[in-house]
Design a protein that fits this description.
With about 170 residues, the protein is mainly β. Helices cover about 5% and strands about 45% of the residues. Strand 8 and strand 9 form a beta hairpin. The chain is elongated and about 60 Å long.
């Protein structure tokens, strides 16, 4: 079975077995809703199934309680562990939307079929995402993920065709 990370347990919270989670999903309300099943992954063991009992947001963290855990001693061992979902639990995205893991690693080509680099990171900004493209010379270029720039995303061919804006390399 394939698992995907949706958050990291960074600490315990209180004495009743709650955890403080740094979410790595855009869908926190859906993923962490009461009744949702998550898997906690630890080194050298298979994932443990947990059911969300309560969820609330607190600053940049998500606070979760699980049906299977009732005190701090039971949850302490999960500090630093990843919370995951299965591929079957994953939501279908609308046309033209992609998971970050699908974008990272794609080769970037110009309209003239010149290899420009590889996407190494996706940064969230207020207006649009920005894709970090690692150039063959080792430099990084920030590429705005907007329709005027991103012409085609081809997951089968593992590439992106872009209208490379003049001046991007002079950043």
């Amino acid at each position: 079975m394939t698992y995907f990370n949706v958050g990291e347990i960074v600490n315990t919270h209180g004495i009743r077995g709650e955890v403080k989670v740094l979410a790595t999903t855009d869908f926190t309300e859906e993923r962490f809703a009461p009744g949702q099943v998550l898997y906690v992954s630890q080194k050298d063991s298979s994932p443990v199934k947990l059911t969300v009992k309560r969820h609330r947001s607190q600053k940049q963290f998500e606070i979760l309680a699980f049906e299977e855990i009732n005190d701090i001693n039971e949850v302490e061992k999960y500090k630093g562990a990843q919370l995951q979902i299965t591929s079957e639990q994953q939501s279908q995205l609308e046309e033209g939307a992609y998971y970050y893991r699908e974008i990272i690693g794609l080769k970037v080509y110009s309209l003239e079929d010149e290899l420009l680099g590889t996407i190494s990171e996706v940064m969230e900004t207020g207006a649009n995402d920005v894709w970090v493209v690692k150039r063959p010379n080792g430099k990084e270029v920030l590429l705005p993920a907007i329709k005027d720039v991103i012409q085609k995303v081809d997951l089968e061919q593992q590439c992106v065709i872009v209208d490379w804006l003049e001046g991007l390399d002079e950043q």
